[in-house]
Amino acid sequence: MAGIFAWIGTTEGFAIWVRSRLVVDSDAAATAHNILTHELLYRLGFVGDVISCVAFIIYTFLLYDLFRPVSRRLSLLAAVSNLVGEAIQLSIGVFLLAPLVVLEGAHSSSAVNVAQSQAQALVFLNIYDYGYAISMVLFGFWNILTGYLIFRSTFLPRILGVLLAISGLYYQVNNFAEFLSPAIAARVEPYVFVIGVAELLLALWLVVMGVNEQRWKEQASAAGVS
Asked: Do 77 and 120 form a contact (C-beta atoms < 8 A)?
């Protein structure tokens, strides 16, 4: 079940792809044109974000239950971290809908008002990007903790934990580069999707192979988890 919900959460990748095609950095007019011309696609991207958040909330609870025998405290800390990150991502979703609101009916107004609406729409999208980076700090922390829990467990391959922890560290480099130096972030960001393969490998393993049930039961029994 955890693996299935992790794969459902990949709808976020679709949402990111949609915005990468429609949003033109530093060009408010082109961005507004793309959003209004492909409004349905833009809205589908937003829906992809929402589905991903809901799926990852469920995924987080399932992994918390799975890793309780390894360390109850670390598993809880990881879960809380990711849940807060998902709550942030859901709440900043309004900044994705805001451009549709300000651009609605803009073509019937004066040229000055149209330009202002376009600029405001791009500001909303930029604010969303920074909010998303904040949520990814928590997600990266969750990756590191979950990678450590996998490494300490006896019922999943340690290599999955190592790869997940590395992806979490890379997310943090990308996130703080976004805050401190957008120029560096622009160089780091293209490799984020490559690093994110670690999450897909974990999801694939959970769906196809599952966990070593006998070892999980032994670890749960030793930890007093039922």
From this structure: no
Does pTM surpass 0.85?
A: yes
| pLDDT at residue 114, as a whole number | 84
The C-alpha atoms of residue 149 and residue 168 are separated, in whole angstroms, by 13
Q: Inform me whether the pLDDT recorded for 109 exceeds 60.
A: no
Give the pLDDT score at 78: 96
CA-based nearest residue to 203, from 14, 11, 48, 59 = 59
Query: Environment class of residue 87 by beta-carbon count within 10 Å: exposed (0-12), middle (13-18) or buried (19+)?
Result: middle
Q: Rounded mean pLDDT of the chain?
A: 90
What does 69-125 look like in DSSP terms, one character per residue? TT-HHHHHHHHHHHHHHHHHHHHTTHHHHHHHHHHTTGGGS-HHHHHHHHHHHHHHH
Taking Cα atoms as reference points, which of 150, 155, 166, 153 lies closest to residue 198? 166
Residues 195 and 167 sit within 8 Å (Cβ to Cβ): yes
